[in-house]
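JOB MANIFEST
job_type = single_chain_structure
chain_count = 1
residues = 228
[input]
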Amino acid sequence: MTESIVANATVKAQIRGMITRRTALILGLSIAGPWAMSQSADAQMSPQDSADLARVQAYLNGIRSLRARFIQTAPDGSLTQGVALMQRPGKMRFQYDPPSPFLLVANYGILFFHDSQLNQTTNIPLSRTPLGILLGDQVALSGAVTVTKFVRLPGQIQVSLVRSDNPGEGTLTLIFADNPLTLRQWIVLDQQGKQTRVSFTNMEVGASVDAKLFDYRDQGAGGQAGGG
């Protein structure tokens, strides 16, 4: 009996550690370090790059709400999926499909990350995550945000961003299809170069979203996003 209790405690500790790391990746958190700091320099922008960056900023500011399906690829290649909802300013929800026990809700300036398997909730200030860049009332890709890399490929634009005052919190790369400009993926990169990729399908910009789905205080993990 004692060996069983110790074994269960060890497994739970391992799971808790895994959840902590996964939470950091999903929310765009990383510990400041030499690798992260080396990425904080401004990207060298051509006039065409600057014009395209202005298009990206205008596109992001045009998204007041959205609903989409997402597929998340972890650094180890494991996949989870579900429904993503966003309503600016400040609201986001990632409802993971079963059997994943995770729910992420952003509101009140806080990211709530709930693990129903452990019955554990982690609260992280939205201002400490690069994802918070996307949830402001107005998105500005300058000043408080530094563009560290800009890549234009046939039919695609990639923009890498950090918070100017603390680039070690994480790098967020947004990947857009072009003509028309459409957000397709984002990548959160940690200080060791490990990345978590989130891809979107069936995106509905301007979708009507029930505000209660963003109120974690009232509903906890019980609400269902549906759709998609």
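[summary]
The chain has four helices and eleven strands.
The two ends are 46 Å apart (CA to CA).
exit_status = 0
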